[in-house]
Design a protein that fits this description.
about 160 residues; alpha+beta; OB fold (Dihydrolipoamide Acetyltransferase, E2P); six-stranded mixed sheet; 6 helices
Length: about 160
């Protein structure tokens, strides 16, 4: 068989490329990126603080909010495995962008936003997590307990 044809068939057989869900044990890369079976998955519609990003708590003391977000995500995912991610698209870095759920059906992105570990990113979510964010802000959960720079602005600086 032609080498090119074999490569194309392998390419199409990959779940991440064939738009089929990825299901497996998730490893956390950061607060909005996980990995399943060697495939990096960017959680669609949200943005979490970067690992080096610092926020201020209610007393104005700096803390590593990106590290807190990643650890919270790891704890949340480990409580109900495997994780299932539905393909949305590939981003400019060629990462699988998806909407992810725990084995018990809980929406990973909604949980992160509702608990103040990530923000609804309207540019990509079209407001899908706006209610969760309002709830987190109203109840001063996570980053909303103090002050922070939205991750997309922090990266731009």
């Amino acid at each position: 068989m032609n080498k090119v044809l074999v490569i194309v068939l392998i390419f199409l057989a990959s779940p991440a490329l064939a738009s089929e869900p990825l299901i497996g044990r998730a490893s956390v890369i950061d607060g909005d990126t996980i990995e399943i079976h060697g495939e990096r998955i960017r959680l669609n519609g949200i943005d979490a603080p970067e690992g080096r990003q610092r926020c201020q708590d209610a007393r104005g003391k700096d803390y590593r909010c990106g590290t807190i977000a990643a650890n919270a995500l790891a704890d949340f995912l480990s409580a109900s495995s495997p994780t299932r991610c539905e393909f949305i698209e590939r981003d400019r870095y060629r990462r699988f962008v998806g909407r992810c759920f725990r084995a018990d059906g809980k929406d990973v992105q909604a949980w992160l936003v509702r608990n103040g570990h990530a923000l609804d990113w309207p540019r990509y979510s079209k407001g899908a997590y706006a209610q969760d964010q309002s709830d987190a802000e109203r109840n001063r959960r996570g980053m909303w307990a103090g002050s922070f720079i939205p991750p997309w602005e922090w990266r731009r600086r």
